[in-house]
Amino acid sequence: MTGSITEQQHELLTSWLGIYAVIQDHSWPLQDTTVLQVAGHDGRHYIVKASTTSHHIRREIAAHARGLSGLEGRVPTLRHAAPEAGILVTTYLPGKLVAGTDAETDPATYREAGAILAALHQSAGTSRGYVRALTVKTGFLIDTAQGLLPGETQSRLRDALASVDLGPVELVTTHGDYQPRNWLQDAGHINVIDFGRAEVRPWVHDLVRLSHQQFLSQPALRTAFLEGLGKMIVTEQDRQLWTLENLNQSVGTVVWAHQVGDASFEQQGVEMVERVLRGFPPCG
To answer: What are the tens digits of pLDDT across the range 106-115?
Structure first.
């Protein structure tokens, strides 16, 4: 299992953990990051993430560097990192992934996950350039989706994008992929893993995936989540940001899934686009 890490990464691991043993490979298909559960010479288990190409390693290191205060024991703790070598080591959190279990349809899960997200969303200041940059990126994605979406759909997407009018926005630390496949259930509590897509963004960013998945058919889960989060989309600025984030993530899903050859996920992206243009999912 260690054949997917470089000699340099192996040497770093040995210097940090001593002689280590690979317990399990947790790598996801279609991803360019190796994720290993290992046991160090101290007998403790750790999670190792390594890649020579993925920007997710640096994002995760940066998220820990910004600080995740108040979440000790609920999120992994960074132990070692070498961004130039594309490798990091965090503590291992025990538990079972929520996705695919009864916990995925339990409102209590979402209430607790919402509360954890509220603690994660620590203020990161105000940005005058975030909206401009995301608008440009989304426009590029719409152009890239030519042939993947009907021409009429692309035109409607461009019109929707042009209607977004925002100035400076408040940013927070966001997870970037906040959904049951990154939640663990352990001893009746929910923990959160995988900060490889973490970045400073508007708070609504972390609600998009859930709104297109679990919340669609089970509004009680949405209600419980928002209760835990303690926040709803009520201002005009939040509504505009919600539109922009949904446009970006829906078209981005279509483009990325097509590039990696995941036809099923690409179709999910197409359905996301259709919902966004219909005015769904609902805000907050």
So the answer is: 999 999 999 9
